[in-house]
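in:
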């Protein structure tokens, strides 16, 4: 499943990079949550939550119904 998620994120990445951001896969949890790290301009963007849920989450959950959610983590 992780390979499928990473492949999907590669499709989303150019959309984020156009605005100076990026996304990194962190983990797929046992409770079917995808954890990602937003980078670049996305990391501090006020619209990051909307992008994460409205774009990244929607695409991943529509592609793979077993995914229950997408969360951003900060390190």
């Amino acid at each position: 499943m992780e390979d499928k998620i990473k492949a999907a994120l590669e499709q989303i990445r150019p959309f984020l990079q156009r605005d100076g951001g990026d996304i990194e896969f962190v983990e797929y949890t046992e409770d079917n949550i995808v954890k990602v790290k937003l980078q670049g301009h996305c990391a501090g963007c006020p619209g990051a939550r909307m992008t994460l849920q409205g774009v990244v989450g929607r695409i991943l959950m529509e592609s793979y119904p077993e995914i229950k959610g997408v969360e951003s983590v900060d390190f």
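note: The longest strand covers residues 21-28.
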